[in-house]
Design a protein that fits this description.
Structural class of chain A: alpha/beta
Oligomer: heterodimer
Distance between the termini of chain A: 52 Å
Helix content of chain A: 40-55%
Strand content of chain A: 15-25%
Strand content of chain B: under 5%
Order of helices and strands of chain B: HHHHHHHH
Shape of chain A: globular
Largest sheet of chain A: 6 strands, mixed
CATH superfamily of the largest domain in chain A: P-loop containing nucleotide triphosphate hydrolases
Helix content of chain B: over 70%
Number of strands of chain B: 0
Largest sheet of chain B: none
Distance between the termini of chain B: 63 Å
Number of helices of chain A: 14
CATH architecture of the largest domain in chain A: 3-Layer(aba) Sandwich
CATH class of the largest domain in chain A: Alpha Beta
Radius of gyration of chain B: 23 Å
Number of helices of chain B: 8
CATH topology of the largest domain in chain A: Rossmann fold
Shape of chain B: globular
Number of domains of chain B: 1
Number of domains of chain A: 2
Radius of gyration of chain A: 23 Å
Amino acid sequence: MENALIEFQNVTKRFNTRPVLDGINLKINEGDVTTIIGKSGTGKSVLLKHIIGLLSPTEGRILFRGKPVDGMNKREWKAYKSQFSYLFQDNALFDSLTVYENIALPLQQTTNLSKKEIEGRVKVRIEQMDLLEATYKYPAELSGGMEKRVALARALITDPKIVLFDEPTTGQDPIRKNAILSMIVQNQRRFDFTTVMISHDIPDVFFISDRIMILYEGRMIFQDTYDKLDQLDHPIVDEFVKSLEGFKDELTGLHTKGNFERLYEQDSSQKEPHEAYVVLIFTLEDMDGLSENVGDTAAPEVIQSLGTYVNKHFGDFGISTRLAKDQVATILPSTEIKEAERMLEDFSKDLQAKGLAQIQADTRLDSNSEDCFSFSIFAGLAEGRAGDEMDVTTEKAISNQKPILKFTCEIRR
Amino acid sequence: MENRSIAQGISLATPFTFLGGVVIGWVNALGALVIFFVQAVLLIFKPKQLPLIIQQVFFIGAKSANIVMLVGLFTGMVIGLQMYYVTVKFGAEGVLGSAVALSLIRELGPVLTAIMIVARAGSSMTAELGILRISEQIDALDTMLIDPMRYLISPRFAASIISFPLLTAFFDLIGIIGGYFTGVILLGVNPGIFFNRILSDVALIDITGGFVKSLVFALIVCTICCYQGYFTHRRLEGRGAKGVSLSTTSAVVQSCVLILISDYVVTSFLL
């Protein structure tokens, strides 16, 4: 079995006599995005602070690459901590320092790099995080999203191997939430760090996480992939996870995946096994590239516009959901494949004629951006029978996808 | 019967339990304070400290200079006035210069300077550190491998050690000028006698004594103010903004009281 990067063995934490963590056993694998969810006050932040050494366990032990953290000498401890960065819930930026100074601080204070080298590295991060205009501003002068990006830039300036995020999207609107999570994943891929995150942004965290952990009353009741979450028989799934998921997706206004599946099951239970349905899949190609070129909010805005447009076209005939962060699925329960093909053709024409204009207007891509960018939307459909597994039909629809909208790079500079 | 005697025993022990708890609390707090002080002083000599110390000297020293000199001027003027009316009764107004200078250099200079710095810089040190603590900025330093004690506390200690004696010297000098203004210019004491008595009566031991006091006050003020701010989150009686406000109040009150107590102790050693 693969060795865990970080392992908790029966970790208990008590404040005075009150237990906050109660015999926690967990494993975090290298390179994974691990998301911890749980109600407020269940000890999620306390757990994260144990990983980075801000708190130490009352009982139990924490292992890093199989070595107990509490047995490390001063040099090992320093080497251990130097691999981490921590993004605080409220960012914890230094109010009296500018954005530049905040980002440069860890390099200035912990390395012997020259002023010029530090300046070079900070400027690269500032550009990557799209913070050029805010370089010499103070945190109080920034928007919530910008502050988050500054905190992320500061967390990544030392090229950490493991980044811990404590509720990185708190207080953000749906587009910004999506953008921050996309930004985390993009940076995780680009810089290849292990991510441990506390977040309640369902379904987005499910789309980006390799593993989900659920903390309930100080105990770890689930740690596995998102696919296995459905098999968890615990009151928290209904009372908390599903309540967080809700009925409508915050970003697109479409049905949530759970609600979508319920509606589909209700519909198929009323059908004869031979009765047909059609699945349509729409995919925004290279969502990460779009974010990189046009800014973090552009891609979620395109998905939001696509969702609105799909709902407008197919809302009267079927049910739609966001299947993945860049994918929208629609089921047309009482439509023949020929009819669905015709509807998709009409949708494509309409999307070319009016939809693109709407997406451009929503995302302000055409007027404000000075960068060269392009994106494509693909669509595919497949027919299934009431008795068929929906996943199989969905796979077929994905494999049948063809481009229905192409927005090509226009160099404006 | 047995239960009754146990209950009586418990009620008899209660005052001692309480007293013991208070004493243990005091000893613990004092121990923590000493460790905090020693750590802060040792970390002054770590690399990368100079720019931070200069910043703090500017804040604690340079920015306090105006108010310290203003207070010094009026203190000197009042002493000049009071001493003139005392000395003139005995026909000894010639000693006005040495009376003003000695009372300022030996006593009022170090004490009033320290109290003014507590009011201006000490309170803001506590409030700033308290806010850094409650907004997790100190934890953020820790996660970035920056020792908060080295980065935040030690430069303040070094700056206090540098600034307190300098500001005391300013206070003394301006105070003597104030005394000269009242005694010589307003009340007509002979200027030559005024300065001559200062030169003949003020000994080096008086000046070094004043500076020793100001160094002791610097360490006391900085330890109390930084400790209260740094450990704001441990206050049981108030969290968040209220905790910061309570810490600031405690820092100012404790610093002022300890300045006066230590003044007596140091004076008794110096005399």
